Amino acid sequence: MKTSIIATNKQTRFHLLDDQPAQEIDVEGLTIAVAAARDTSSEDSSKLKSKGKSKAKADARELISDAHLRLKAGVHYGLIGRNGSGKSTLLRAMADKLIPGIPHATRISILQQTDATSQEVSDGSEEDTTDDYQSKPVLEYVMSSDNHRNEVIRSMNILSKSFETEDPLHPVIAIRQVRHEQTEKQLFLAQKNANLKSGARGLQARKDLKAVESKHQASLERLGQQKDVIDADAIKDDTQAAVETLQDLQAQFEAMKLVDIEQQARQILIGLGFKETTFDKPFLTLSGGWRMRAMLASVLIQHPDVMILDEPTNFLDLLGVVWLENYLQQLRETSQTTIVLVSHDRDFVNAVCEEIVLIRDEKLSYFKGNLAAYEKDLEEQKLYWGRMKEAQERQVAHMEATVREAVKTGKKTNDDNKLRMAKSRQKKLDDRMGIQVNAKGGRFKLNRDLVGYHLTARAEIEVPTDEKGASMALPDAPELRYPGPLVSLEGIVFRYKPTDVPILNEIDLVVHKGDRVGIMGLNGAGKSTLIRLLVGSALPTKGKVSSHSRLKLGYYAQHSIEELQEQGNANPGLTALSLMSNVVDSSLSEGDLRGLLATLGLQGRVVSDVPVSRLSGGQLVRLALAKVIWNSPHLLVLDEITTHLDFHTVTALATALSSFNGGILLVSHDRFLMRSVVEGKRDLDHKLDEDFEGVDEEEDETQSRRRTVYVLKGGKLREQKDGVEQFEKSLVKRVQKMLPAPV
């Protein structure tokens, strides 16, 4: 079901006019809701026109309510919030200029994780989503993504070609066409202003609309004027206007040519993993992951006022992630573009973002600093306010006891002084307990720091809480009847054709129960091929794959989510509960299945009433994981499991995996997950849950886990003595040579 976005906000006279671009956004009273799009006939629509807005609001579900959206020019923001909190909806509302306080002339480019077959790039112009555009070669596709530049070139070509003919009327027709297109844009903005504004500003906006409508009608009449009725003076004036406009457009184009856009496009594509041999490949022939990379490149090559990146690392390998980190850091120094970024990759957000925007309880809050600084500050605030609340609770308990004793004594002895003291202390308990410091950290004074203090009590002390994702729990692996490795690869060689160079060459790998093995590498190195050999989905060209006779294997494939989406689309009535019932073949009851799904954060109506086709990416990951763990496997093989999760849920997943007593083979580009699960490290920059079991918790054990990080390169598995850090450092050196020169 399609949904529509409804955005409203408090409008002030300080808002910039729609025809003036702005790199800063300051919108108060922002409310964003989503509602099911209604398909009404023209007959019905006329009946609903008067109350359609209120009806839509009544049916809509609010995601953000009375919030303050504030973005400063040139600052890189990290947008943080749980899955379903409204991050992507907010970004789409910004990109589509649905928020009235965002000027229409502000150029906004967006990469959003939706259907990879569609172009998700917007800069305030009408998108070119025709087959001709998407059938362009990759390099040309990226270069032609800047609609502002395309518009200048298009108008320039119309005018320049008109002067190539001997017909004196051709420049007249050309300039009238260009002017009419400009007038149509002015009409759109005037209609938008007239619809949004009210009161005195609304009256003026409607007057302006009438003027623009008259201008548009006159332009339309001139455009349709017969050639034989155009007089000599009009030809002279319009020809001169065509010359001046062409000169102005050429000057704009020359300024754009100061940047070698082709060279920049090539460097960006190479940085994102493309080879030069694929530059001439049509965009439509690319797989979904490579299309998203090309779309990311088409966003990066633009120079918008605001750049929005929604999960840009989802389809990148670690080299691409490190390159993008460095590219955006360089952009911070060379451009005034404001960036709003959503990513589940903690290290990426920490490296790129200067400030954090948190969506929580339908509000937006801000923190000046990166993600690591935010989490550190949150811990300090929790400690500070927690101690203050504990101290005040002790003080309140003591004062309440004093009041009770004073009242008891005063009534018994008829002591008015005792009763007055009790009343005074009770008044203090009622009106003066709460926050004891002001916003600046000084002593709180009612008459200065609390407006209307004589009418209301102080605000209660609230201890900040963590914004955690749904917790996860994995079933323990059962005991094996006899010891031995869970899986073993000996001398594995794999090639697709006998004459091909081996993708895997002499691979040896052994995994025992309790081991933590991580495999990293660039895209195309053969990681997924190695996993398929290990789980038995493919056979090696040479070598031996053996497994324990009692082994129960749980395999989360890289494309598990796509498979679930296909199943959901093929069977619209399929729910998580019915799907799991088919998977387990009635070996578990409905109650058992609900319990299993609940341990992964899926419960209630979500599992029984919501179709699989309507589940979010994070919910689909949990469902796919349920298919993997329902039979309590001894070995978990996880191939890129974090792609659709927010970083709160990644933290919950890391905690659940840390205490799993079976073996884990993890393939991931997520450095945080690899460090925490495989290396067992508590990251200094990112706080893990208290239930996390890492290396520190193994010190008292007689036998610690085997923890090894490998890199697959050139068909060989290479152990990283220094773990993820060693591989990351090697990639940083490569990235420095790949970055485009500053512009």
TrEMBL record:
Keywords: ATP-binding, Nucleotide-binding, Repeat
Chief site of localization: membrane
Location of region: Disordered: 111-133
Intracellular or extracellular location(s): Membrane
Superkingdom per UniProt: Eukaryota
Membrane topology of this protein: Multi-pass membrane protein
SMART domains (alphabetical): AAA
Pfam family, any one: ABC_tran_Xtn
Keyword ATP-binding applies: yes
CDD domains: ABCF_EF-3
Composition skew (Polar residues), residue ranges: 111-122
Location of the ABC transporter domain: 48-386, 487-739
GO function term, MF aspect, one: ATP hydrolysis activity
Keyword Repeat found: yes
One of the record's GO cellular component terms: membrane
Protein name: ABC transporter domain-containing protein
Species of the source: Aspergillus nanangensis
